[in-house]
């Protein structure tokens, strides 16, 4: 992960981590539960107030605590707050290493250099981390989902390479670097995207460890559907057709975003849940969660496109406005778009309420990150 991306994580993650930090023992009272009564008993290190004769300030908790050492032990047993920044850095580094190993330089050198140029250009690796986290939330080991996580990132990179071509969005900047076709030419850029798309499915099929073939086939089917004529491609086509149109409303906009963007955020979550051994009920609950954050991602993207600079975004700002594309700020205004983003974030978190809170922490934090990201 590049230093620019790391600084973004630090700024965003501090919002989540500060909320979970406990106050020091000396400055705040602690509520401890009496083992025989269902109510909290306050305990404080400050001097006791004046009380009636014969009353001991510690009598109410004598059955629970007998020394300062006991209080310290109780505090130390508390689990620390989830460290989102550390989790993302660790998982992103694992993904980057695996991508580097999966797509080495070999003959023909030019095409592999072009593939690696965009694939290893940095980025937050949100999609592969979603896949790994979804695997863990249903009780699986993230290693079994790593090939699928890499496949999703390969396909995402393919979509960016093709999106930037002159025949599509005609962009010259991606992740703070010249786009693929600016470096390797349009012909090689098209082929690099094609190669990444093909290798993505090969990698899931041959590299997924210790998972029943039926799950692997199911995962491949989900991924294929998410990017085909009923998924990413469908959204891209309607997006192109709607440019400059006065008839494109909220229904059209939602279709574009659910297919062009949300589909490739839904896929990694569903793949992770399937490969991790999740039940059908768990898979569908996580699918609903992913659809919410997928749409949320694009709503926030639309807002950032008109409120941030190219330098801040690492890509060309304001290009949707120039292309006269239909966006949420265009139809709703910025404030209403922000309100919609808050609603989607809340709905996404509700779909995680039935999972173990400790295992759900990464997905909860990822949803909040997507809602509050700045690039």
From TrEMBL:
Q: Which SUPFAM superfamilies match?
A: Terpenoid synthases
Q: Which GO terms describe its molecular function?
A: geranylgeranyl diphosphate synthase activity; metal ion binding
The UniProt keyword set, sorted, is: Carotenoid biosynthesis, Isoprene biosynthesis, Magnesium, Metal-binding, Transferase
Gene3D superfamilies documented for this protein: Farnesyl Diphosphate Synthase
One GO CC term of this entry? cytoplasm
Its needed co-factors are:
Mg(2+)
Q: Which InterPro entries match?
A: Isoprenoid_synthase_dom_sf, Polyprenyl_synt, Polyprenyl_synt_CS, Prenyl_diphosphate_synthase
Designated name of the protein: Geranylgeranyl diphosphate synthase
């Amino acid at each position: 992960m590049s230093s620019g991306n790391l600084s973004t994580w630090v700024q965003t993650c501090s919002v989540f981590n500060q909320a979970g930090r406990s106050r020091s023992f000396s400055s705040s009272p602690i509520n401890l539960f009496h083992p025989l009564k269902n109510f909290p008993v306050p305990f404080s290190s400050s001097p006791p107030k004046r009380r009636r004769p014969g009353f001991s300030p510690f009598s109410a908790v004598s059955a629970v605590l007998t020394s300062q050492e006991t209080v310290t032990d109780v505090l130390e047993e508390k689990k620390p707050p989830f460290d989102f920044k550390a989790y993302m850095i660790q998982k992103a580094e694992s993904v980057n290493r695996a991508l580097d190993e999966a797509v080495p330089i070999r003959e023909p050198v030019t095409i592999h250099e072009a593939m690696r140029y965009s694939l290893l250009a940095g980025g937050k690796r949100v999609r592969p981390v979603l896949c790994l986290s979804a695997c863990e939330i249903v009780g699986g080991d993230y290693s079994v989902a790593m090939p699928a996580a890499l496949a999703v990132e390969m396909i995402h990179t393919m979509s960016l390479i093709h999106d930037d071509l002159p025949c599509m969005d005609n962009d010259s900047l991606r992740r703070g670097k010249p786009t693929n076709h600016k470096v390797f030419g349009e012909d090689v850029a098209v082929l690099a995207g094609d190669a990444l798309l093909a290798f993505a499915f090969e990698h899931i099929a041959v590299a997924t460890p210790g998972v029943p073939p039926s799950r692997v086939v199911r995962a491949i089917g989900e991924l294929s559907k998410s990017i085909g004529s009923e998924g990413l491609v469908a959204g891209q086509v309607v997006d192109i057709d709607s440019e400059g149109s006065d008839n494109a409303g909220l229904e059209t906009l939602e279709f574009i975003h659910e297919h062009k963007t949300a589909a490739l955020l839904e896929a990694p979550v569903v793949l992770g849940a399937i490969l991790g051994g999740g039940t059908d009920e768990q898979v569908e609950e996580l699918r609903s969660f992913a659809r919410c954050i997928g749409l949320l991602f694009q709503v926030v993207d639309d807002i950032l496109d008109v409120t941030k600079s190219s330098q801040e975004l690492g890509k060309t700002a304001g290009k949707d406005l120039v292309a006269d594309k239909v966006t949420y700020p265009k139809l709703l205004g910025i404030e209403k778009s922000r309100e919609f983003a808050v609603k989607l974030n809340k709905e996404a978190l509700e779909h995680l309420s039935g999972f173990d809170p400790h295992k759900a922490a990464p997905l909860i934090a990822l949803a909040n990150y997507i809602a509050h990201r700045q690039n």
